[in-house]
Amino acid sequence: MGIINFQGRRTSQPEKEHEPILVSDYMSKNLITFREEQPIEDVIETLIQNKISGGPVVNEKNELIGIISEGDCMKQISESRYYNLPIDKNNTVGKAMVKEVETIDGNMNIFDAANKFLTSRRRRFPIVDKGKLVGLISQKDVLKAAMKLKGNTWK
Q1: Which domains are assigned to the chain?
Q2: Beta-carbon contacts of residue 37 (< 8 Å; ≥ 6 apart)
Q3: Tens place of pLDDT for every residue, the chain, 155 residues?
C-alpha cells in the first residue's frame, strides 16, 4: 500500500506586489564632502586615503555647489607640470570643481538610475532634498542592489 498524503484543497497564493527599489535605499549617507576654499592638495590626500574617486562640494549650509573628481585634480597637476611649477597652494576646489551638477531624485527606481548612469556616463550622482545634500549614489551602489535581487524578478 502506498502513502497517501492529503493536504486538503490548496488555494492559490495571491501574487505579491513588488515595491520598487529606490535610490534612497542604496545611497551613501555618510559622505566625505569638500569646501570651495580647500586647497587641491587636501582633496588629493583625502581621495587617496579614503580610496574614493571624487566627492560633492558643499557650502556652509550643506547645499550642493559642485563636484570634484580625480580627473579635476589631474588637470591641476598637469597644468603645474606644464609650467614646471609645484602644485599652486592657491589652486582651490572652487577653481577646479565642476559647477554644473546633475542630480538624481532619491525616490527614483534603482533601475531608472542605472539607465541614467549609462546615458550620462557619470560615476556618481548626488541626491539633493530641499536644496540640501542628503546622499550620493554610485555605480557600485546600483550593482549592489542588483546582486541583492539576484534570483528575483526584475520588476
Answers
A1: 23-148 (3.10.580.10)
A2: 92, 93, 94
A3: 566 666 666 666 555 555 678 999 999 999 999 999 999 999 999 999 999 989 999 999 999 999 999 999 888 877 766 556 666 567 889 989 999 999 999 999 988 999 999 999 888 899 999 889 999 999 999 998 888 876 555 55
- Of 117, 118, 120, 104, nearest to 25 by C-alpha is 104
The alpha helices in 53-107, defined as continuous H runs, are 70-82, 93-96
* pTM value > 0.70: yes
- Nearest Cα to 112, choosing from 16, 15, 17, 24? 24
